[in-house]
Amino acid sequence: MTRLNNHNLGNLTADVATPSYDRRALTPGIVHIGVGGFHRAHQAMYLDALMNQGEAFDWGIVGVGVMPGDKRMQEALAAQDYLYTLVVKHPDGQYEPRVIGSMVNYLFAPDSREAVIEQMADPAIRIVSLTVTEGGYNFHPVSGEFDLGDPQVHADLANPTQPTTSFGLVVEALARRRARGTAPFTVMSCDNIQGNGDVAKRMFGAYATARDAELGAWLMREVAFPNAMVDRITPVTSPTDIDELAQRFTVEDAWPVVCEPFTQWVLEDHFPLGRPAFEKVGVQVVEDVEPYELMKLRLLNASHQALTYFGYLAGYRYAHEVCQDPLFVDFLLGYMREEGTPTLAPVPGVDLETYRLTLIERFANPQIRDTLARLCAESSDRIPKWLVPVIRQQLAQGGEIVRSAAVVASWARYAEGVDEQGEPIEIVDRLKAPLMTIAAENRTRPTAFIENRELFGDLVDSTRFVEAYLTALNSLHDHGARATLEGLVSSKGSL
Prior knowledge:
With about 500 residues, this protein is an alpha/beta fold. It has 21 helices and 13 strands. α12 crosses α21.
């Protein structure tokens, strides 16, 4: 068994790819906030590929963790010289391990607040990137406004030089750069939000303005926030993944990351201080990201929500199990073709029918073992951003909404916290308590869940949506998830 670190790279077996470059030559150029599996399977992987071509040595990544749980990963990666193994799992069972070397440091903000701020304030840092999840941008799901009442944000504004949030850390670093005459870094969002760069600009701008109006105006004027679409299915690393890496390839890695073969990154080219030559390693650098991001959010991400609650209630626990079931595949393709796709503009260079079928193939990859529990988590941050816009646009243009309404109903049924076998469901959501309280009323007051205007706005005022939602919810209660889908599929969309 070979423990992963710089010293042992040359001792790994030949079937484990390792960096071809001298990591001692790397210097920081990017600070990344939110080092999870996705960042390590995506942005860090692209940079590693570029470094393997002999480029981008001044774009090393300094990771930053801001959540309490990030401490464990920081310690694990530090012990490995910030190396980790990326394992690509192919549907045919082939595993493709590769050691990624593009990360040069990882700071845990609660323990190293000043170090994090000064790292971002360093003129060598030209990009600060983010994967802080859909909920990490602190905006209202309906109004889109920044929540200044958040307790952590409120505390940061009261003591802006000692921040704890990503907003406070980034804005304090920008304030120091401004005071020192250093040009501002680019803020690059890599999260699944429509117009993620635009959203980041509004949210960081709102925080900065609340701190100091002049600082806010400068940030909005001078800081670049490019939009991006990112895509790669990356399940949570499990103990089995760690054991398999050790058994198959004799690599001792405390925190590897596994992913599917497919990867895509579409990036708006807006980087005043420069950027790595991402296009040399397959990134699509474009003028307008929106068609690509809407395609991904409304077909891939919304389809994940379409399969996950129904699948869990029907007794499945993994995404690939659901997408090997013809009934679920028919339902998903029906949603994508009849409800999601009509809300999309043409996507340059993409055949949408091929894309839809590719999504089913990706979801059905048995090697990924993406859990439905992961896909069900944080629904209050996902459904309003990914599916509700589809419903609104379809209502406005007279399109079909029956499947989308059924997905909302399946979330409401799931939020009751008990599956169809009477077993408890562990709800993972920042709004867990209020959601479960409302869902408990589903049988006595069936519109209770969608009366939550914080999540659904005025959808409850649409007779067409309410009728479709209630039909699906009643069927879920009376007949179960599978029979509800059978009704939707057999009647081509209407129960």
